[in-house]
Amino acid sequence: MGKRWAKRWTSSGPDHRRNNLLVSRITPSPSSEPIHWALPPSKSHLIRSLLLSAQSPTGVDLYNIQHAGEDARSMRRCLQQLGVKIEDFDGEGELLHQVNPVHIEHNPNSKRWRVHGVGGGGFHRPATVLSAGNSGTALRLLSTHAALIGGPVMVDGDGSLRRRTSTELWSSLEQAGVTISIGVGEERLPALLDGPMLASKLSQGITLDISRSSQPLSSWVLAAPSLPCPTTLRLEGDAVSSRHSSLSMELLEAFGGAFELNDDHLTLSPTALVPPSSYTVPGDASMAAFALLACTTTGRNITLIGWPDPQDAIGHELLQSSSGVLGVHWNDELLTLAEANEPANLDLRDANDLLPPLAAVLAMNAGGCLTGAPHAAFKESNRLTRTADLLEQFGLKATVTPDGLEIEGNQKPSRPSLPVDTYGDHRLFMTAVLLAVKCGGDIIGQNLHTIADEAFLDRLTSAGVGVEMLVLPPLND
Question: What whole-number distance in Å separates Cα of residue 10 and Cα of residue 368?
Fold first, then answer.
């Protein structure tokens, strides 16, 4: 029995059974009516405010959490495993009934989350593994807290997250006296973090490499209220995505935390938080890139709802300031198709998540270069090579450079003859869907968008786009 089972389910060989393909078949709409495009809440803000609220000594109400996305819900689930109570309220302020008060899922009708903080250092060791799903942000921000808890805590994620490295964060935690065990092979998770951190180690300072990701730095910053003693981080390397680490510091300060930044040294102090009674999560500015792409592929006006203030756009405000070279006229909430007269040259150092949709926008306009994004190679997929691969499936040409892409202009996407591989990456999936809105196509994936924008496909179907969920036989069968 065992041998037959092993042979039948081997990952290669003549008896290997390949999985069927779950695809979204996209059919263009002839409508010319405007599209209403409401931005989801910023997962960067929501995940961080959840973690700070959980360390607060009082309750904090979080607003604008509808369509929060799987990444934010992963953080919420993990915090509940650590002993944090989170309640759901409807738009009238009524507590939504929960059959089980410790149920870890949120109510889909919730308009507000109330987080009952447990104070700094109040997290309990979880009974089971902390699974961050697809969220690298949730995993890394939680890992420092897991390392503060006495005894082993296992952190894990889905198949995509297991292939992403957290070397810099693990190194910093080991300097604090934490033992980390990771299996051998290609997968970098699960990781067993056996703490707690030692004050004798922390008092000597921690060296942290910030050249590949800002998340390890944010992880330490957002753990400040729970640290056992003041800790100085010696920051090494040329920082990337610095707006996100700055956001972590700004929110820590807004919730009453304390830190001191001097050049390349950051000192964190375990100060008890004094949080606001409520916090409204701004809209996710990065998701507006898909509104620009929708305007480009459909030619229809877009009413953009929920665009945040510039200070809350965390680098993605370049969408508005560069809309002209992207072939879109941006007037308050209204996006209309325009003509891009010259190639664009956009630096995505603080906005590398924009790379896939902007590459598609440039290909259909005057082309150009996307630079400053070598760290995009360490996302859910290698977004440098995979974005070029995705465009090629639609007949669009782009060249990978060491830090971005060079894109030819004045191209037109054509319907792919085969289902489009989106490499398990939600931003590539959303880009592919919007390219198919122009030419049609079968896009591999059906729920990837829910990681960050749960209403994405519903928004398109409301605009008349055909979206059909299909199960197709494996390729080459």
Answer: 45
CA angle 220, 289, 328 (to 5 degrees): 145
In the chain, the domains with their CATH numbers are 18-40+284-472 (3.65.10.10), 43-280 (3.65.10.10)
- Distance spanning both ends of the chain, measured CA to CA: 27
Print the SS3 string covering 232-295: EEEEECCCCCHHHHHHHHHHHHHCCCEEEEECCEEEEECCCCCCCCEEECCECHHHHHHHHHHH
Cα-based angle 310, 434, 332 (whole degrees, multiple of 5): 30
Give residue-wise pLDDT tens across range 233-270: 999 998 877 899 999 999 999 999 999 999 899 999 99
DSSP 41: B
pTM (whole model) above 0.85: yes
Are the C-beta atoms of 362 and 404 separated by less than 8 Å?
no
Structural tokens at position 178? 């934490």
**CA–CA separation, 430 and 380 (whole Å):** 14
Element (H, E) at 387: helix 383-393
